[in-house]
Amino acid sequence: MSTTQPVAIVSGASSGIGRAAALTLAGNGFRVIGTSRHTAKPPPAGEVTYLDLDVTEDDSVATLVAEVIARFGRIDVLVNNAGIGAAGAAEESSVAQARGVFDINVFGIIRMTNAVLPHLRSQGSGRIVNISSVIGIIPQPYMAVYAASKHAVEGYTESLDHEVREYGLRALLVEPAWTSTAFDANSVQPDRPLDVYATHRRIFAEYMADAVESGDDPALVAEAILAAATDTKPRLRYPVGRTARVGTMRRLVPARMFDQQLRKLNRLPA
């Protein structure tokens, strides 16, 4: 079985940004394979095929990619969206917990990319779109492990993009700001909380809940993902919504002033 439609794989497509991206791509001519660890749940409406995938398991990734190629004969776009949030002070997360976050947010991307790249290279075209975050540009207090994972995604993608361009491929970044999803509710909480950080951890939890509630619509992020997948002359980075403004501020505002503003926003002592 094969298709003449371009084929896109979207990981973590059962809700939030992934769901919005899958539906947007499907509505713009793509045959979309949405993945989730729990595809037994009713999939969203639209022309999206749902398959099981656990990005932390090598065999699951290999099986998914082989099935897509067998069923559709091609892969044109990989959207690495599967991810997990993590909150708490840096000292409050064990190495084991940090490893778990990286296994999804970073190594999950690497597993998927390594599995898909040989096919993309052989056909001489394709896009890998990795979902980063404003936190990958501007570290947020009480999100050290998550920030580190998104910084890793930024560096990995930029290096990868240099390596694959000569083969007709691009690796690109979409950088959402706070988005109206279940991000805060699904974030990993520290596995060894300390009383010394309790007050500021609570303040940050309130800040994050408010930021997510008033955050950008996932559809806005989905449009950026579509642009990264289809632009004739794509940019390396696609900042979304408030990320663009914050990124500009960091470049233009003196470092000391920016630092003070970030601490004020998080109600940390000057």
From TrEMBL:
Positions of the Ketoreductase domain: 6-199
Keyword Oxidoreductase in annotation: yes
Membrane-crossing residue ranges in chain numbering: none
Molecular-function annotations in GO: oxidoreductase activity
CDD domains referenced in this protein's UniProt entry, alphabetically: 17beta-HSD-like_SDR_c
SUPFAM superfamilies named in the record: NAD(P)-binding Rossmann-fold domains
Family: Belongs to the short-chain dehydrogenases/reductases (SDR) family.
UniProt cross-references to PANTHER family, sorted A to Z: SHORT CHAIN DEHYDROGENASE, SHORT-CHAIN DEHYDROGENASE_REDUCTASE FAMILY PROTEIN
Protein name, UniProt field: Ketoreductase domain-containing protein
